[in-house]
Amino acid sequence: MPPFARKLLDWYAHAHRPLPWRDTADPWAILVSEIMLQQTRASVVIPYWQRFLERYPTPAALAVAPEQELLTMWSGLGYYSRARNLQKAAQAITEAGGFRPEYEFLRALPGVGDYTAAAVASIAFGLKHAVLDGNVMRVAARLTCDAGDIGAGVTKKRLQAAVDQLIPASQPGLFNQAMMELGATLCVPRQPQCLLCPVAEFCEGRKAGRASDLPIKLRRATPILEAMTLLIVARDGELLMWQRPADSDRLAGFWELPEAAHLPNVLKTQKLGTVRHGIVNHSYTITVYLAGVPRALPGREKQLKWIKRNQLAELPVSTTSRKAIQLWDKGRES
DNA sequence: AACACGGGGAG
DNA sequence: CTCCCAGTGTT
């Protein structure tokens, strides 16, 4: 094995964090973990992954799951199209009679792009496909001292070529996991721990004294500030809520507290406070009011419904509404 | 190539 | 509070 891979794998063998999906060889469990880990930290994923696989231990089990149940299982993880695509993927896998150990089969599944296909191909099936996620991009940019903008396609192609050169024919899955682990624990965005790095001797960025300045990221969207008003309309053990339409562009099928516009005639009886919520490049400031119960419920279009509090845990509820309800609960305790 | 999509952790 | 993180699908 080449010296780089040898040094990296020796380090990984004793330094890696004990994450639960590293103890399985089941392609389904590995696929689920990789989908959940897209844009989401490992510590957040762990409890979701465990509950998800208890409920859906096989692709066939997820293939026939009701959508509301699936979204409830995913609620809080974000990027809910991942859940819908994963169900479509489960249906495709079931129809194919199970996983086929080929990169192209995996890559064709809904919600599976270059990264996830390479991760599952290498980790579950031992195929030599190098992953390039955010961690690996950072590691590779430093290793090769590449000062290109990692938002640009050409830079990604260059970095992909670099890791393609480094990945060994044996243990490609462990190599990929080791590269990501290095980026997650030592080769971190700020103040990289080069003194502890097992491959520092190969690092051109470090030799040039530029490791901590890489990678270069040019694009930065300015966050959009938005104000929102949510209403707590409660009667014994029930809350007034509405469900977003199935074709909504975001949070489709999720239950939310009513906004002021849904109940134009209601009295804002008491301001409970504000909660903040940052999503993608939006920053919401949510003012929460405790409101009285209207005499008649308006709106065929908004479909306001009374939801029992103990039912809420079994429904997909947006995090903005959840935070508002938490604020109300907190106020009632004291 | 640009944009939309959630949510959370670190400092 | 502010800054940072970064896969996939669509346009």
Structure description:
The structure is a single chain. The chain has 334 residues and is of the alpha+beta class. It folds into two domains: 3-213, Endonuclease III, domain 1 (Orthogonal Bundle), CATH 1.10.340; 224-333, Nucleoside Triphosphate Pyrophosphohydrolase (Alpha-Beta Complex). Helices cover 42% and strands 14% of the residues. It is built from 13 helices and six strands. The structure holds a DNA duplex (11 and 11 nucleotides).
Describe what is shown at a glance.
This protein is an alpha+beta fold. It is built from 13 helices and six strands. Helix 2 (27-37) packs across helix 3 (42-55).
Q: What layout of secondary structure does this protein have?
A:
Blueprint: H1 3-15, H2 27-37, H3 42-55, H4 59-63, H5 67-74, H6 81-95, H7 103-107, H8 114-125, H9 134-143, H10 153-166, H11 172-185, H12 204-207, E1 224-235, E2 238-243, E3 255-256, E4 268-279, E5 282-291, E6 305-308, H13 319-333
Parallel strand pairs: 1-5
Antiparallel strand pairs: 1-2, 2-3, 2-6, 4-5
Helix pairs in contact: 1-11, 2-3, 2-8, 8-11, 9-10, 9-11
The chain binds a DNA duplex (11 and 11 nucleotides) through residues 35, 37-41, 43-44, 76-82, 85, 110-116, 133-135, 137, 150-153, 189-190, 217, 219, 221, 249-251, 276-282, 318-319.
